[in-house]
Every structure is written in structure tokens, then in C-alpha cells.
Amino acid sequence: MKFFPKALAAVALAAAMTAAFAADPIKIGVAGPFTGGSSSMGVSMRCWVASCC
After folding, report:
1. Residue 11 dihedral angles phi and psi, to the nearest 5°
2. Residue 47 has what DSSP assignment?
3. C-alpha angle 21/22/23, rounded to 5°?
4. pLDDT confidence of residue 25
5. pLDDT by residue for the chain (53 residues), tens digit each?
6. Could you say which DSSP state residue 23 is in?
7. Which residue from 1, 3, 53 is spatially nearest to 28, judged by alpha carbons?
């Protein structure tokens, strides 16, 4: 019966470690003027964010 707690702890540790690797990617949103007279500024902001990721 001493084997059961160690096996249970090993299974719990393995489950916790696999959950850490299954994290979703972080998404970054940009709000800016993409149309109209200031669209050149918005397009440059979008390109800057795309180059950072």
C-alpha cells in the first residue's frame, strides 16, 4: 500500500506539468485609424506590432 501514494503523486505531477505546456498564445490588439486621412499612421502602427510578435 505504500506504492499507491507515490504513484498518485507522480501522476498528479505529470498532469500539472502537461497543463503548463498547453497555454494559449497571448494576442495583442491594436486600435488605430486604418481608414481615412490618418490611415498612414494606423498602418504604420499595425506594421510595428506585427514586427514585434
Report:
1. -65, -40
2. H
3. 95
4. 75
5. 566 777 778 777 776 666 556 567 777 777 888 888 888 888 888 888 778 75
6. P
7. 53
- Tallying the residues shown for the chain, one arrives at 53
Return the pLDDT at 22.
58
| Residue 50: burial class (beta carbons within 10 Å; 0-12, 13-18, 19+) | exposed
Q: Are 27 and 49 in contact (CB under 8 A)?
A: no
Report helix, strand or coil for 25.
Answer: coil
Helix (H, G, I), strand (E, B) or coil at 42: helix
List Cα–Cα distances, 8 to 1, 3, 22, 42, 53, in angstroms. Answer: 12, 9, 22, 54, 40
